[in-house]
DNA sequence: CTTGACCCTATAGTTGCTACAGGGTGCATA
DNA sequence: TATGCACCCTGTAGCAACTATAGGGTCAAG
């Protein structure tokens, strides 16, 4: 069996991706258009499955669609230095760290406000008070 | 001076909010429509300024627009129990904690992959390898 | 009057999906 | 053959929370 054909549903199940999301990736050019059956159903190859797996893994790691696009492009250039890959990954890691820090600051403030709240009426609610001018 | 009037630009500066965002809040009903000048400029009262401050503080703490809408409604009911406020705040805090945990898991995985990357060619790139099937 | 900062409305775009509408295909079963 | 159900298709609009763009009016100082 030199050529396996997968339906879009097969790909969706194999990669835990929604069918509509796969169509979306095709529309934005992230996944190449596959061949079609006589019934106009999409017919994917194993290479498509591999590429979609890459996309999902990168998305799960929080890389933006554009970053994924760049990573895919770079991954095709086997002899090229992986410096650019490193740059994308490190920029993303820095962004993740910033988000964590922001959320932690937010959490501290919010937690502090909530801790002060002894449930009475709105008029004496510390949460409302903290938000009010 | 019993009645102070602020332009939309005044409000924007006072609350570090963009003018277009203030118009947006009005459109979605979060901020009541103000009076207008003869030239059709919005003319805000101090009460508007107070309400916008509340909105911005709540947004900065990560509350969704809908949560802010609910909090605003609750804040007007002075004699009511602040239980509902507490519920909104705690639900939000739980969500923030979940986001932090997710990001930290992601960060650990991403960081580990990046640490293994000794820059050579794409063909031997550990980052690309980690993403590939 | 001119100019520049500010204001106005309406509409479309951003990111990454996701929902909905309406219709076709494939296959198993009666 | 007919039916039913799961799956497929395209096109378009929606979601959250803004934000950009287009085109035009207002205000106040020089």
What does this structure look like?
The structure is a homodimer of 133-residue chains. Chain A has two domains: 1-80, Multidrug-efflux Transporter Regulator, Chain: A, Domain 2; 82-133. Helices cover 62% and strands 3% of the residues of chain A. Chain A has helices at residues 8-15, 19-27, 46-60, 65-75, 83-115, 126-131; strands at residues 35-36, 42-43. Chain A has a two-stranded antiparallel sheet with strand order 1-2. The first copy, chain A, is elongated and about 70 Å long. Chains A and B meet through helix 3, helix 4, helix 5 and helix 6 of A and helix 3, helix 4, helix 5 and helix 6 of B. Chain B binds a DNA duplex (30 and 30 nucleotides) through residues 7-9, 18-21, 23-24, 28, 37-42, 59, 64-66.
